[in-house]
User: Fold these one by one.
Assistant:
Number 1:
Amino acid sequence: NNLPFLVLNADVLTNLDFSNMLDFHNQSRKIATLGISEYEYTIPYGVINIEDNFVQEILEKPKEKYFVNAGIYIVNPNVLDYLDTFSNNFDMPQLISQIIGAGEKVGVFPIHEYWLDVGRMQDYNKAKTTFEK
């Protein structure tokens, strides 16, 4: 059939309403939609901004914000045409990069619901604690 399909990393926990993401994908008319989550990281030190060997400012423990790949994708079936470009194993970020390199448009869907990648032990323990409550 010609319907989009969902690809989800196996180490992701979420309560995302996938139908909202699917609706967004269908309305955007992109070949793929990538779920993203905002990630905030606090640098545990004072950061020094320097120009011409002079201190311009000191930022004490600044917070950096990034959008990160949430490991949730909705893709149209024609994405499968790009699989022939890989001779061995590949992952979704490589496939998405291949698609973008071919001039296709990939959309993003911000995830505001609960989302956690449990691929690291500390995040796995965090999930365990959350679900035990």
Number 2:
Amino acid sequence: MPTKSHLTHLECPECGATYDPQQLQTFCQGILSGQPCRSPLLARYDLSRIGSELTPSIIRARSRGMWRWAELLPVQDPNCRITLGEGDTPLLTIPRTGARLNLLHLYVKDESVNPTGSFKARGLAVAVSKAIELGVRAFVIPTAGNAGGALAAYAAPCGAQAHVFMPQDAPRPNLREVKASGADLHL
């Protein structure tokens, strides 16, 4: 049986308003000090339930990739979970830098092995998947580069439109990545 998200609600960190995570949300619609709050919303999960049900052995038995952590991600419908193989990127030891900083165990996460070459793949995989689950079929993103490539890459497999806005001097590889995925690029 596919795992389900244990997402319970969305919450405003400023005014405490709560929202249904199965409805499309943008930002807080509450009032704070007589003014519209408009704060970003935070996803809240049933961590007690996750803690009592999820064990390291269960995680180890699952297929590798970001979605093996489904209980801690917001997408309920497994059919909406888009993946290009993101996640499970290696931790690399950097002992010489660690020694110079007097840190015995210093590591760097190598996000370059994600499908779009950056950590943006993780966030956009989740964001596009959740939006698809909620019925969104077109996306817009302003970016200096990597986020645009990731949005384009994750929108493509589900046939969604992606409109990417980049500065004229954005790195050429990022421009090519957006175009190669079929997104609408605006400079």
